[in-house]
Amino acid sequence: MKFYKRILTLTLSISFVFANIQLVDAISSVEKIQGKNKYEIAGKIADKNAYKTAILINTSNSIADGLSASGLAGALNAPILLTEKNTIPTETSARLKNVSKVYIIGGTYSISTSVENSLKSKKMKVVRIKGNDRIKTSYNVAKEINSIKKVNTVMLTNAYKGEADAISIASVAARDKAPIILTNGQSIPFSTSGLKSYVIGGTASMSTTLVNNTKSTRLGGSTRFETNKAIIK
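Now predict its structure.
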């Protein structure tokens, strides 16, 4: 389970790279990125591009808050870096030396005030995006993306059963600067009128009623692998 979560976490970070290269480049060669831990690997992924803004997430307990960060990373041209709740690992700190603005995704239960204050003490502008739960956090991230560039496309997935599905769409969300919005799988409290909406996942996680009510295109299958295949197509 820990290995599976690590894979999901690093896929979030690498979505920043795929947002900045053409698909043909992504498949024409293979490069190995490795490090002693997930913080170093995420940092090495960030090193692939220049940036002045970064996004911090904590995936120690859950990657839910980080799932919605992919679209924001694309909109900001910012890497997703990893932190602990109360301290910033040295591997991450090294990538923040030339950063002027940091987005923290999640409340203080995820990333503490002490981490936020540490960043502010280094003259960085800090923006925390949070909500009462993971669903509300994703809505607020979507609002931030819309303030940067008008949102035309949204990706809807299940907040509690759709981690693998959201990971499959993460690089697309970053490329298209489109928010991944977490849902209960049954309904959403906003209108998708005027938006191109995709429901990510099969009927076990995202209901047909939701697809119909939002006039969405479903990208999904009976397993996470079939969902991934549908997204790649």
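DSSP finds eleven helices and eight strands in the chain.
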